[in-house]
Specification:
Distance between the termini: 30 Å
Strand content: under 5%
Radius of gyration: 16 Å
Order of helices and strands: HHH
Largest sheet: none
Number of helices: 3
Length: 61
């Protein structure tokens, strides 16, 4: 769930349990070289924590 979804749920429902968490994490899955990404670049970002450029993922595949 993203920040927009949390904000919308809070407007509709009021207090959310997720707001009581001490820590939250934010994740972006776009590639290193572009905001629009392909599946390989986003999967690499989620699996390793490092962004890669789109041409690099296709060259190594």
């Amino acid at each position: 769930m993203g920040l927009s979804q949390i904000s919308a749920a809070k407007i509709v429902s009021g207090q959310l349990n997720v707001e009581r968490f001490k820590h939250i994490g934010l994740l972006t899955t776009h590639s290193y070289s572009d905001l629009l990404t392909a599946l390989a670049a986003s999967a690499t970002a989620m699996a390793t924590g490092y962004k890669t450029s789109i041409p690099m993922t296709y060259e190594n595949a």
